[in-house]
Amino acid sequence: MAKILITGANGFIGSRLAATMPVGSTVRLNGGDELVERLVLVDHVVTNSVAGPDGAEWFEGDLGALVAAQPDLFSSADAVFHLASATSGECEAELDLGINANLLSGVALGRCLASAAHRPLLVFSSTLAIYGSTPEAPLPTVVDDSTYPTPQNSYGSQKLMLEVFFADLSRRGLITARSLRLMTVTVRPGQPNGAASSFLSAMIREPLQGENANVPVNPDLKVVLNSPDGAVAGLRHAGAASDDVWGGPRGVNLPGISVTVGEMAAALAVVGGADVAAHLSWERDETIERIVASWPAEVASERAAGIGFADDKPFIDAVCDFAATINGG
Amino acid sequence: MAKILITGANGFIGSRLAATMPVGSTVRLNGGDELVERLVLVDHVVTNSVAGPDGAEWFEGDLGALVAAQPDLFSSADAVFHLASATSGECEAELDLGINANLLSGVALGRCLASAAHRPLLVFSSTLAIYGSTPEAPLPTVVDDSTYPTPQNSYGSQKLMLEVFFADLSRRGLITARSLRLMTVTVRPGQPNGAASSFLSAMIREPLQGENANVPVNPDLKVVLNSPDGAVAGLRHAGAASDDVWGGPRGVNLPGISVTVGEMAAALAVVGGADVAAHLSWERDETIERIVASWPAEVASERAAGIGFADDKPFIDAVCDFAATINGG
Fold first, then answer.
1. B164 CA to chain A: closest CA distance, Å?
2. Can you tell me the ipTM of this complex?
């Protein structure tokens, strides 16, 4: 019997993750199978509190404030999936927002879990953005488990700080930390946002819905992605792995899909046809190109292989998945 | 004209650093020479407020509380040397103390400096303890600039988090960050403390004062140290280096003295004679040995060489320095 709590549960990944673990289902946690007794869903905005799987309980509010006001809600959980986060674009635009929403709320959550009499499992959604290339410290062609993280945005910095914090609480035996670094998740539904990576979803999403989209980078630019299904499966697997299999509390890079932007456009043409692909324009934006080019394009993770993470699906399958949601809607 | 502020100014290194920059002296900061107009010394305990160099102004109190109560005191500084810290032993014994005194106070200080209209220089005293060896992730024989930091104590974790935080503020152009990682500073005056490294000073300090001291590790164990003079000179040099010379905001390992514990004992015998060395006993303590052996024993830093940090003195000179303070006192 387990009480599971998800932060950011109203979000794109959070809601999909929640759907996989309704009350009464069996979820593998730290190497053992547990019956889900309570499923607590937390978000700063809850758009539809009757959404979510059967038996879910919703709590709406700022994460740091909720932890302060209702610590028992969090510290009584057996497993917490911490996905809540201000986005990379928001954190870059507003320093204080990122510090409060990501860093300080995460520290408050970690302290609260560390105060529990049992040892809660914490699955933390970290990010590829902990890595970044600079002229004086260029990233290697392939980022691996030993690559020194040098985040080039506040979002990645805050996530990295939390990885270090949770690893320390885990080392002390207070929690069991599982920091999993997701790649850029594509295809995302919804509207374009201010993130430099926004076009990676828009270039598939908009044409499939009959709208134009611009690709602001050279077609040869290589990126590394996760499909939405791959991200959810990865988070589930991070929670499922036993201490022995996971090893130390250091973060793990989730295996991703390395693909060029040109290959992404080609996949769109295969799935949607030439008319759909004709909605793409290719007007370069050097600022966006510089940012995206500073991210890793290829990630190898021996640790992930040893922990048994599955490979993500080919990118064309992620395009098909998204196309199916349109046709189904 | 510059206003300089030192946190932890009542401490062993802080007081020595303060002594090198009295009001009216010239200090090199970020590549330019500046006349010290104000010297503000901050510590949570001020044992002797008339100590410190001419013209120094003392402020006593918890750092986080002082930043909250008197933000202008900090944000008006041109250069801040941030040395205040709970010790490794304290942080390991008391999780909340370390989080509050190190992590959250440092975040508050960084936010305060980032709010200044100018761009303050922040020299942050980081530590070798950001590195640590574990059975599954052993450190390389020589730690270099690309070694992935995996702290194995809360103190090192909190310092590493602040390095990442200050680097991000620096990347955003809000402050100029200089994180300098000090090695274990030896010989420290005063009393033994709870730190696992305490014996490294005690095995020199106590015998030179006619007292017994135990060395709890094998004589072959190698450690990397800084002399007190080397640590102060390093902090000064970190503040002096220009942006161009320093490069990106990532932390730099201060060149240290690699020496075996047996060689340290031999240096003691040379300086103090056989009678002094006879005050040493060699009763092993496996717990202490395991901790100390998990730290780097040798550190190479190409970056430090490029920035022009001087090599530290031979260990025997640090022993002579300490012996001179006894004979002079």
1. 6
2. 0.96
